[in-house]
Design a protein that fits this description.
disordered N terminus; disordered C terminus; six-stranded mixed β-sheet; 20 helices; about 850 residues; eight-stranded parallel β-sheet
Length: about 850
């Protein structure tokens, strides 16, 4: 008997498992005939993924199939799943009534099976793609060419796994400002027969979203692109994947008025509800007539054409009344076309730019509508729900930017939003009720891959993140692709890359504001110094070291005939090296101007050539990106000129004919340990504090020196500063030989949480009278522009001191909880402070 059993075990197919480990090769996949098209697409993709990994493509059978070893189904649709519930293999309470949840288990039968069961169609799809990820197929296998490693013995290990519901109900991307990447790539490369972004491109986007556990898409909508609904197949493709269509703040009821095919003022008249209501309603009725049968999230109210304010120049009271009427009319149309109770149809109101003013001046948004709060386009949330808004049935959401086109400056090129900043701003929003809808403006999708991954991982399971581990998230992601041995190196590279961009984004190195006054328009020299502070030299040295680091990492990857090097180039090498060359281009041009003015013409010639070389290097990097993989990404990568930027241009430099080139060695020599120009100043070590309360934390991953002090947590009740006797935190600084000192405090430029809050902190020296700093500003003011461009708000206050004291105490008090201090300088006669760079100036 034992011999027969031994022979039987030897003859078991490869799909059989030991214990709860399931081998995915040589298997049969079974699903019920009632499964949706979107689930069947994901099953096809899983089988293709198993084939890529193991070399054996599973057989798919519909209905209960003899020998099936992977059973996939949706609760309420699949008879097989119902049977497994009855047998006790699956618990009905883990599926019934849950939103986008799944269960994965390996049965305990003699011939065990892998079971993937979803609470609804997307829950099933997420479970399917979770298996793909577990066997080594990255969500970025196509969009960033992450190689799929062959493993004929690939396994998954499950006992009984319950995903639970996602942290955020609706999670998606907004493809925006696609003019310089996605549009030319699609129209001249990927969909050149169509000559536009169309169904083939959207199929790739939808698959990516599902693999990232997203569920909604706001399609590209610039006038250079054919409107989403102008290509009828696009909406069918999105629905076939199970993706919900949403629209931006300026596309009410799925209508893109930036596209001539949707709204042409010569044909349709002015986009003005007061004077042209019937035409506008006719457009909305037609759109709902073709789209209401699909899953949509409807944007209510209206703005002007594209991203403009309301037409008509109406007084505020009339604007409020008019938008109130618009919302009422829109809701009647939605209910009629969908045949549902209006409260059961997802709708959003986005108080963006001028619509925020209309909302705060009395607009009544129905309780079932989701309020989608926005950042200021530069990563800082303008406000979150107050105590009354937290009680809304429609809850709240977030519209957040990784890319932006507009004043005071575009940043459309590289992914440079620090993960910790993203987490901090989304956390304060989430804690205030923004758990219904998260939309991420991703520009052209590439090269925003890492920021997109972080955003979706947070949206799916926000509780798995905290202020510490979020800074490690992207390094861990890269280590999972390129090897765990590189994890520490990735962390060091990303910390430095984001730190340098925090100080100044590569797109901002021209130090200009376009669409501004003459004093700020046009390329100009940077505020970094080659003189007193030598922070220009340090910045160049830091970037060069970073660039060399990623170059060495790329060479160490070896040649394995996979796409590993191309993937590394896309994720990390291109952004780092392109950022370096952009900084080199502008800093060398500045040095050229300074040397030429000083009559050092040979050295000026050398720095001019360095500028030219940096400019050419960026073009070369773009050419490499567009040409790799036999031109797969041809047309995708450029330095987007945008509308509010000149950084893509080569700055003017001065050459002197007849002069040889000479390296300005005395200027370029730089000791990484030196802190030149700090006489009469003391840069406070933020980590060297005396904590007086438990409300203070050092947070790494933000700030000029890559750490900040946070005074309390956002959302806590504000404190009256004047009456406080115990500070939150204290610093000791040395004796000074003056009767007065200046304390310069740099804070992260947050907006107040809402109208009832501020940004106040208290400052005192040696227990004296407190100075209150409350960083208040208006959007598009000079103060706000300066702060978001520098990622910092500066406050300078003078204190009288007793110069006979052997040391002094600097104290900070909590006012509005959650404020972050990123640098403090004590100045008792040091050189003029102009720009806060990395050298501690």
């Amino acid at each position: 008997m034992r011999l027969k059993l031994f022979v039987f075990l030897l003859l078991l197919p490869a799909c059989m498992i030991k214990g709860r480990t399931f081998h995915v090769a040589n298997t049969v996949v079974s699903h019920d005939k009632n499964e949706s098209v979107s689930v069947c697409k994901a099953i096809d993709a899983l089988c293709a993924d198993i084939g890529k990994v193991t070399g054996t493509h599973p057989e798919i059978k519909v209905g209960k199939a003899k020998g099936a070893r992977i059973i996939i189904g949706t609760y309420g649709e699949s008879k097989q799943i119902s049977a497994l519930v009855k047998k006790g293999v699956l618990k009905e309470t883990d599926l019934k009534g849950h939103w986008e949840s799944y269960v994965i288990t390996v049965t305990k039968d003699k011939n065990p099976c892998l079971v993937i069961a979803g609470s609804d169609r997307r829950g099933t799809i997420y479970g399917i793609y979770e298996i793909s990820k577990q066997i080594g197929v990255s969500p970025w296998y196509w969009w960033a060419d992450v190689p799929v490693r062959h493993n004929e013995n690939a396994t998954v290990d499950y006992d009984y796994y319950i995903s639970g519901e996602p942290s955020v109900k609706y999670r998606g991307v907004f493809i925006n400002d696609e003019d310089w990447g996605l549009k030319p790539w699609a129209s001249h490369n990927y969909e050149k027969e169509l000559g536009d972004i169309g169904p083939r491109t959207y199929a790739r986007v939808c698959e990516l979203l599902l693999r990232l556990k997203g569920n909604m898409l706001a399609p590209a909508m610039h006038s250079c692109t054919g409107a989403f609904y102008s290509h009828p197949e696009s909406k069918l493709v999105a629905d076939s994947f199970g993706i919900i269509i949403t629209t931006s703040h300026c596309e009410p009821l799925l209508l893109n008025n930036a596209a001539k095919s949707e709204w042409d003022s010569k044909r349709d008249g002015e986009w003005n509800y007061k004077t042209n209501k019937n035409t506008i309603i006719g457009k909305w009725e037609a759109r709902l007539g073709e789209a209401a049968r699909f899953e949509n999230i409807y944007t209510l109210a209206m703005r002007g054409v594209h991203d403009e304010g309301m037409r008509g120049n109406l007084p505020m009271e009339e604007r409020v009344r008019l938008i109130q009427q618009v919302i009422g009319d829109q809701r009647e149309m939605i209910a009629r076309h969908t045949g549902k109770s209006i409260a059961d149809v997802p709708q959003i109101f986005v108080p963006y730019k001028e619509t925020m003013d209309i909302y705060e001046n009395g607009l009544c948004v129905p309780d079932d509508v989701t309020l989608v709060w926005v950042d200021d386009n530069y990563g800082y949330m303008k406000r979150v729900s107050d105590e009354n808004e937290k009680k809304r049935g429609g809850r709240a959401g977030v519209y957040y930017h990784l890319s932006y086109l507009g004043a005071p400056h575009d940043y459309l090129w590289l992914n440079t939003t620090a993960p910790v900043l993203m987490y901090e701003e989304l956390k304060k929003s989430y804690d205030s009720g923004a758990d219904r809808y998260w939309l991420l403006n991703v520009g052209d999708i590439k090269p925003m891959e890492m920021g997109i991954q972080t955003f979706f991982d947070m949206a799916w399971n926000f509780s798995s993140f905290n202020i510490v581990n979020v800074n490690n998230h992207q390094a861990e992601m890269l280590a999972g692709i390129f090897g765990s041995k590189y994890k520490d190196e990735f962390q060091a590279v990303l910390d430095e890359y984001y730190r340098l961009a925090w100080i100044r984004k590569p797109e901002y190195m021209g130090f200009e504001y376009e669409w501004d006054d003459a004093a700020h328009t046009g390329l100009r020299d940077t505020d970094f110094s080659f003189g007193n502070y030598r922070d220009a030299q340090r910045r160049l040295a830091d970037y060069e070291g970073l660039s060399n680091r990623v170059e060495m990492m790329a060479r160490s990857l070896g040649d394995d005939n996979s796409t590993l090097k191309e993937s590394f180039f896309q994720f990390i090498q291109y952004p780092v090296q392109a950022a370096y060359q952009m900084n080199r281009k502008f800093l060398m041009a500045q040095l050229n101007h300074e040397l030429y003015s000083a009559g050092r013409y040979a050295e000026a010639n050398w720095s001019a050539r360095q500028t030219d070389m940096a400019y050419d290097s960026i073009r070369s990097l773009n050419g490499r990106y567009n040409g790799m993989l036999e031109g797969k990404w041809n047309g995708m990568m450029s330095v987007p000129p945008g509308f509010c930027a000149l950084y893509h241009k080569k700055p003017n430099v001065a050459y002197t004919d007849g002069e040889e080139e000479k390296v300005p060695g005395d200027i370029l020599e730089y000791d990484s340990e030196e802190k030149a120009g700090l006489k009469g100043c003391h840069v406070v070590d933020l980590a060297g504090y005396d904590r007086k309360t438990d409300e203070v934390n050092i947070i790494k991953g933000m700030g000029y020196d890559w750490q900040v002090v946070q005074l309390g947590r956002p959302g806590a009740t504000p404190k009256e500063i004047k009456g406080q006797t115990v500070p939150a935190i204290e610093y000791i600084f040395p004796k000074v030989d003056r009767d007065f000192i200046d304390v310069i405090v740099y804070t992260v430029p947050f907006w107040p949480l809402h109208a009832k809050r501020g940004n106040a902190i208290g400052i005192s020296v040696d227990g004296g009278e407190k100075s209150i700093y409350d960083n208040r500003f208006e959007e598009y003011s000079r103060r706000w522009k300066d702060q978001v461009m520098k990622n910092g708000a500066e406050h300078r206050v003078t204190f009288a001191v007793d110069k006979t004291r052997p040391y002094h105490t600097l104290s900070f008090f909590i006012g509005d909880s959650g404020q972050m201090i990123e640098r403090v300088i004590i100045d008792w006669g040091g050189p003029e402070q102009s720009y806060i760079g990395p050298s501690g100036k």
